Amino acid sequence: METTNLLLQNIDKIHTTTMGIDRIKKNLNLDVLDVVDYIKNIILDKDCIIYKNGKNYYCEINNIRITINSYSYTIITAHKMWVFNIGWIIFQYLY
Questions:
Q1: Which of 11, 55, 57, 88 has most Cβ atoms within 10 angstroms of its Cβ?
Q2: How many domains would you assign to the chain?
Q3: Which superkingdom heads the taxonomic lineage of this protein's source (predicted)?
């Protein structure tokens, strides 16, 4: 919960680079004017799962995973996730 609170408390610091905007638009097949605002709204969704692993925050919702650097609050990337259930094994695939 502390990880979630820390990211949400610093929501105004979240930003990305020009290359990051292009990468996120491509990966999520987006056609929005403000990618950062779009990502912030995803993070603020009550169903978004936020966790920290190493130097990055990960935000997951609706088969999307967003990666944010925990020191600079830079959005690194975002990917669609595919979950495959083959028998008792569940695979998670990012593309």
A1: 57
A2: 1
A3: Bacteria
